Amino acid sequence: MARSRLTPERESELYAAVLDLLGEVGYEALTMDAVAARTHSSKATLYRQWGSKAELVVKALRHNKPVQLGEIDTGSLRGDFQAALLRTDDCQMEKSSALMRGLGQAVHSNPDLLQALRELMIEPELTGLGLMIRRAVDRGEVRPDNPAVSYVPHMMIGAFAARELVEGRPVDQAFLTDYAEAVVFPALGV
User: Fold this and answer.
1) pTM of the complete model
2) Is 108 exposed, middle or buried (0-12, 13-18, 19+ CB in 10 A)?
3) CA-to-CA distance for 36 and 18, rounded, in angstroms?
4) What is the pLDDT of residues 71-130, one digit of tens each?
5) CA distance 129 to 40
6) How far, in Å, CA of 29 to CA of 138, rounded?
7) Spatial CB neighbours of 152, under 8 Å, sequence gap ≥ 6
8) Each residue of 36-46: pLDDT tens digit?
9) d(Cα 97, Cα 161) in Å, to the nearest integer?
10) Which terminus in the chain has less CB density within 10 A, N or C?
């Protein structure tokens, strides 16, 4: 059965409502009924369009984060990192961090959500980051045998998770810029 197409505006509206609800009640308490009520749509339409709560949530997160890291090419790794950071403002970063914290617990008990998150958010980010690093290696900025290369995703995810835990403050552009300068670039020999 073919899915009826939603207009891009309607789709954006639905995704925004899902993210608002997710921030308000968390993943476990988020229901398709609540999304249907909030968006004045039917639960059947939601399931027909997205198939599951996990798919709907992850597509909403992905829709909100259209930055494709692999497309950024300023000619230097430092420039690529700065360009990537400038595409998301501090307010959006804080919202994203809060959503990821809210999902952090849910992924442990929901394999569908974990798989959807990996496929739709984590894998594309890793691929884009990998392209950025590969270009830096090709330009001679980073040694191809540098052992830190395979840990860049861990460093960046660690920065997001640790700031909130260690300092009780949200991640912002200034912190990530300082972190890249103090940790990521030195580890890569840039």
Assistant:
1) 0.72
2) exposed
3) 10
4) 889 999 999 999 988 887 777 777 777 677 667 778 888 887 888 778 777 788 888 889
5) 38
6) 47
7) 129, 133, 184, 187, 188
8) 999 999 999 99
9) 8
10) N
Amino acid identity at 58? V
Using a pLDDT cut of 90, give the percent of the chain over it: 41
Q: Quickly tell me which residue has 């954006």 as its tokens.
A: 12
Burial of 13: CB neighbours in 10 Å, binned 0-12, 13-18, 19+? middle
Q: What are the residues whose beta carbons fall under 8 Å from the beta carbon of 179, sequence distance 6 or more?
A: 159
Nearest one of 65, 62, 60, 67 to 16, comparing CA atoms? 60
Closest C-alpha among 48, 53, 38, 62 to residue 118: 62
CA angle 70, 76, 82 (to 5 degrees): 70
Q: Specify the amino acid at residue 153.
A: P
Amino acid letter, residue 62: R
Q: φ, ψ for residue 4 (rounded to 5)?
A: -75, 140
Q: What is the mean pLDDT of residues 164-173?
A: 87
